[in-house]
Amino acid sequence: MSKYHLYQDTDKCIGCHACEIQCKSNKSLPVGPKLCEVIEIGPKLLDGVPKAAYVYVACFHCEKPWCIEACPAGAMQRRAKDGIVFVNHDLCVGCKSCISACPWGAPQWDPKRCRVVKCDFCMDRLDQSLQPACVTVCTTGCLHFDVAENINSIKRERHARLEVEL
Amino acid sequence: MSAGKCPVNSTIYRLKDMIEMNRLVDPYCRRIAEEILELIDDIAWGRAGEDHIPTIDSLSRELSEKGADDSCKETGKFVQTALQESMEVFISHVKTHNCNTGDCILLAPAPCQTACPAGIDVPSYVTLIGMGHDAEAIDVIRRDNPFPWVCGLVCTRPCEFMCVRARIDTPISIKFLKAFASEKAMSDGQYKNPEKEPDKDKKVAVIGAGPAGMSAAYYLALKGYTVKIFEALPVAGGMMMVGIPRYRLPREVIDREAAMLEDLGVEFVFNTRFGKDITIEQLKEEGFEAFLFAIGAHKPYKLRIPGEDDYPQVIDSIDILRNVALGDRHSPGKKVVVIGGGNVAIDAARTCTRLGCEEVTIAYRRTHSEMPADEEEVEQAEEEGIKMSFLTVPVEIVGQDGKVTGLHCLRAEMVTKAGSDRKFPVPVENSDFTIDADAIISAIGQQVDSEGFDTLTGLTWTRRNTIDVNRACMETSMQGVFAAGDAVLGPATVVEAIGGGKKAAQAIDRYLSGIPQPKLPPVPVRRGRLDFMEVPASTKMSLKRPEMPLLNFNRRRVTFQQVELGYSENTVREEARRCLRCDVCRRCGACVDVCRDRMEINALKLGYLDFDHPVQTDFRDTADRCIACGACAENCPNGAMKIEDVGDERILSICGTVLNRLKLEYCEVCGTALGPAKYHDYITRRLKGIARTTEGRSICVECARKMAAHQHNEEIIPIR
What we know:
Chain A is an alpha+beta fold. Chain A has helices at residues 18-27, 66-70, 97-101, 123-126, 133-137, 148-165; strands at residues 4-8, 37-46, 49-57, 76-78, 85-87, 108-110, 115-117, 143-147. Chain A has a two-stranded antiparallel sheet with strand order 1-8. The two termini of chain A are 33 Å apart. Chain B is built from 28 helices and 21 strands. In chain B, the strands form five sheets. Chain B has a five-stranded parallel β-sheet with strand order 3-2-1-4-16. In chain B, strand 1 (203-207), helix 12 (211-222) and strand 2 form a beta-alpha-beta unit.
């Protein structure tokens, strides 16, 4: 896994998709590819009340990414210093092997540039000490981005809060 | 392709550099520069409209005048200069969708079109013929050449020499496809003139009813000018009629295509020689405002050997061909020697055979391989029993009692002279011999007959005794006087004359409309980008250029019937399917590079793409290794290589040639097409050793994401 973790507090997410839009506009993507996506689960009737959940999915930046193995052109790479999995667009040839190989649907197709695109945690922004684009616009503040160690405390806090609510 | 850099393309590169180097810091200027870049990019890719150039002009002026800092002003000035210096090239990119340097890859014409002196859009009409749209094909051809039928029979076909298909096997039979389509369209009554522009009420005089004069007349008539052609001979066609024998070009073909001009209102005046029967003053009085001299080159060169002027049996090839064309079918003698090695010599010799000469010999100074005549013509001549005497230098015509008895010759040998790569024939001493003959025909070339032109004192001539013109617009040293065809080029080909005539017509139109003449000669114009014809790889490879069926020998030796009998309709349609569509595939080789070097699959055996090191081509071999990943198609800059899902198959094709078709596999959840099994096997193989297993898992991207979300939700954060 990468050094970072992007954590979504599903309890807070209202499914506004602002993160998706900001991501696409930051990367100037055409219609089609979604580097991050908020997927609606439900609505389901729970105790007679319809409920839905919104799950944020992007790329898990796997420890041993299948996309990297699948890529014949060496375009899919893992950044040594922090483990971010990204596409080098100069090397990508558009064979889409990574798309087929990824079990999570993380690599996406950019039909305009004829290249694969995927979430790289906005590593260009990280290098400038900025947050990933999606996180900056989250209306409810449910997206948290930090080094993995720090995310644990956020999760603990949230768990504690839920316990109290019960 | 012509050398040099395309100014449109290089402007894009420079401007892109300026923007990417972050030299433009002012955000407003940067945006304007990016807009300019986008507009020029449109021009380079054929997407530009009429407003593009004025907009670029005003935007760049804004930058250069009101730019926030020096870098903005500099950028604006750079674009301004580039635009002003090469305005014509920019305009031609917009108007004609054409880049003759080939730098703007989408707009570059195919090699066959570039090779054609008339600039015909060959791939477009070949495709139309392949589709069975003969009349449409004729329309496409006649936008650049009003004589598709004539050219279909007698063109020297420079296009076929450039044909890329020759790198695989043999060139497309481009020439004859034209003749077939013309004949078919004519016979169906579908060979029609395009719509004429409204009458301009201006008169143009054309001197000479040859290919150059008639082509100019055709395009001028279409523009709405009143055109009158003055011809010294009693028939239309010029050298096509009196130089090319009937067994190669039937008279009806010329007559029908010349009649198309009359249909447009062009008036022919026959038996009228310029300088004798009419003068330029008379014509000016009659109200003619522009003149085109397309008088051809009908004056033979002299042999300059003793005996040449002493016997009536020494004839010029041009005279005998003309007399025969005009109806005189008398044999010049029993034993004839023709001196020369060009097409005219062959024509004269074969004509003599048909007139009843018993023995016809062609005497040529050099060897067979140096003969300038068309190889097929030489072959056909030999088949008809014409003898060839190579390395033969005529020194004297001998005779008795006022009659020719033979040609005294010397043997020659080919010697390389110092400072030259070419070999020259040098006579060998004491190698004298005599060829018995009762008639000698000289066919050593023609020149322009300038008789009667001495009154035109303002007209300058070249050292080769041709009319001196500005090759960009065919304008002579006299205002309003233009020239084209052999009169300018010296003895050349029909298609070169047509190209010159067309150029002259454009220039005359500019002259009479008061528009300045271009500095560069016009470039070939692409007339369309037609859909591909789908052809299976095996068909594309197995189709072979058909042999031309010929008239039987006996009839060839005694009649003037057309020798080449033509292909059947089916053969023509099949032949058109061999075309590689080089108007779309620019042979950049990106597909092969990606497949071989990046994907390491090496499925594409397209050797013909590499001009310098052509290796074998076999479209059929692709299917052996291809996994239909589509990387080649994604990297094709021109849309030649395509990967498409049709029915339950994924199909890879290049310019319509189907290279591979594989059955698709579908997403288990939603049924979206995923790709063929071979593709998935390839990925599975690459994942061996890392993935648990991917077998049996076939889910599309969207469903994979949804599953990921569901899993996540159920495992960690169930809906509460």
